[in-house]
Amino acid sequence: MRNPRPPGTDRTAVEPEPERLARALLNRVSEPGDAVVGRWLGRLPATEVVRAIRDGTVPAHPGLDPARLAGYQARLPGPDPADDLKRVQDAGGRFIIPGDTEWPSQLDDLGDGRPIGLWTTGTGSLRLLALRSVAVVGSRACTAYGAHVAGELSAELAERGWVVVSGAAYGIDAAAHRGALAVGGTTVAVLACGVDVAYPKGNAELIRRIGVQGLLVSELPPGEHPNRFRFVLRNRVIAALTRGTVVVEAAMRSGALSTARRARDLNRHTMGVAGPVTSELSSGVHALIRSGATLVTDAAEVTELIGAIGDDLAPQQAGPVLPRDLLEPGVARVLEAVPATAEGAPIERLARQSGLPPDEVLQKLYELGSLGFVERHGAHWRVVRRR
After folding, report:
1. Which pLDDT value is given to residue 1?
2. What pLDDT sits at residue 106?
3. For a surface tag, which of 17, 26, 273, 278 has the fewest beta carbons within 10 Å of its beta carbon?
4. CA 66 to CA 149: how far, in whole Å?
5. What's the pLDDT tens digit per position in 10-24?
6. Is residue 109 within 8 Å of residue 125, measured between CB atoms?
7. Largest CA-CA distance found in the chain, in angstroms, rounded
8. Where would I find the Smf/DprA SLOG domain in this sequence (predicted)?
9. What confidence tens digit (pLDDT) does each residue in 70-107 have?
């Protein structure tokens, strides 16, 4: 079943414009995050870049050596960008590029590493969804604690109207997506493969659900499969797209930490959820917090950081209010002076201990007696022992 298109994206019987075709072709010619092509596109339209590569008439360009140019030229003859655009359109998707109304302008913070374009399928506008989004990432081989925290945190964020962004991988990513979906929220999966490729296969049903209830996004054209480097490059898009990144569980060499580091470099909020100090899967998060990330424990604390100033404040955390917390200061001072021993203490000693006149101490002792805090035995007063 095809995914519904957002309003205004139906291009049936409309030929793609040259710039979109050229960017779709460059998307095949180069890998995600190619700063050389990105720097080039900052100076020239994509149509001229393609023509220059094809003709070999490339002006002096920083970082573009003959070997790299030869690599681009070797890839150029094969792909037909029109086929890629039709393929994603048939899947209910589109290829968005800088200048489109749906393009998230915060991706421009990646500079020369900005995506050439993004392939998307699903419902909603990527630009609008990204305006109020937060990344929840972590280890693939997560613990039951990590999966529970990621799911609960994402569900709470979705209930507060936030879009949860992650990478559709096993572990924390999957738990984050499922948490948002479970409460009827919207979630975005940024993939390291084509939007028409279900990877990992064990998450195929989850990915299908995200494509119906949210958005699937990728820099890679249809049919492309992931590799280790593409996962790392994908993480920079997650970091740039969102208002902040929360790492739930991560070992010291976890790829999730690269997302947090990119978020920090882009001046986005980086947050971490603490775990057991005995768990290797929490060691990376703890190191992240020590290096400056903010410790968070629930959605309220996350949204206080990334939300609107004054509108998304987290409630003050406090322990339970005890009856003695409600006592007037003078009464509390007298209570502190009363010993819990069986013999208690006379008025004179309590006056010295509290620094108050004996008559005032006596008055406050009777108040405390009425409240059940102290009791009188002859001339002495003592604390009531709770049973």
Report:
1. 37
2. 95
3. 278
4. 50
5. 444 456 799 999 999
6. no
7. 108
8. 95-305
9. 888 888 877 788 999 999 998 889 999 999 999 999 99
In whole angstroms, what is the distance from residue 268 CA to residue 260 CA? 9
Cβ atoms within 10 Å, residue 186: 22
Given the candidates 3.40.50.450, 2.60.40.10, 3.20.20.80, 2.60.40.1220, the CATH classification of the domain at 92-306 is 3.40.50.450
Which pLDDT score, from 0 to 100, does residue 284 have?
Answer: 94
pLDDT tens digit sequence for 358-387: 888 888 888 888 788 888 888 888 888 764
3-state secondary structure the chain: CCCCCCCCCCCCCCCCCHHHHHHHHHHHHCCCCCHHHHHHHCCCCHHHHHHHHHHCCCCCCCCCCHHHHHHHHHHCCCCCHHHHHHHHHHCCEEEECCCCCCCCHHHHHHHHHCCCCEEEEECCCHHHHHHCEEEEECCCCCCHHHHHHHHHHHHHHHHCCCEEEECCCCCHHHHHHHHHHHCCCCEEEEECCCCCCCCCHHHHHHHHHHHHHCEEEECCCCCCCCCHHHHHHHHHHHHHHCCEEEECCCCCCCCHHHHHHHHHHCCCEEEECCCCCCCHHHHHHHHHHHCCCEECCCHHHHHHHHCCCCCCCCCCCCCCCCHHHHCCHHHHHHHHHCCCCCCCEEHHHHHHHHCCCHHHHHHHHHHHHHCCCEEEECCEEEECCCC
pLDDT score for 335: 86
Q: 203 or 369: whose pLDDT is higher?
A: 203
| Confidence (pLDDT) at 3 | 47
| Residue ranges of domains in the chain | 10-90, 92-306, 323-383
Report the pLDDT value the prediction gives residue 9, as an integer from 0 to 100.
45
Residue 381 backbone phi and psi in degrees, to 5: -120, 145
What's the mean pLDDT in 135-144? 94
Q: pLDDT: is 189 or 254 the higher one?
A: 189
149, two tokens: 């925290």
- The two structure tokens encoding residue 55: 């003709």
Token pair of 160, please?
């507060």
pLDDT above 90 (res 44): no
Confidence (pTM): 0.77
Q: Which CATH class is domain 323-383?
A: mainly alpha
